[in-house]
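Hi R.,

Here's the chain you asked about this morning:
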Amino acid sequence: MPSTTTWKQLTIHTSESSHWKHQPLYQEILGMARQQELMGVTVMQAIAGYGKHGVFRTLNVLDAASESSDLPLVITVIDREDIISHFYTSLQPLLKNTFVTCQTIEVW
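And here is the predicted structure, written out as tokens:
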């Protein structure tokens, strides 16, 4: 049975090369989420993709060996609406070169 709580999914699209204060951006976001005790966060690395500049990124054997592929990352955060709203506000300084979506979801 679906929950009566309003749940949100915050999705942040970024890349491996994105950093915040000399730390990978995804690690900073994970740390902030953990510090604020959010329910759950997942970071997924894509095998291929492109962004607003149209540069196609893909993982191949040579890129894997040189660690220069700069693959897309998708960070998914799920929690109650009020918590996601507060978390998003706290992330604002970090989100300069990202694409962010937020949607209402059902949690069973």
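One quick note: The chain has one domain: 7-105.

Cheers,
M.
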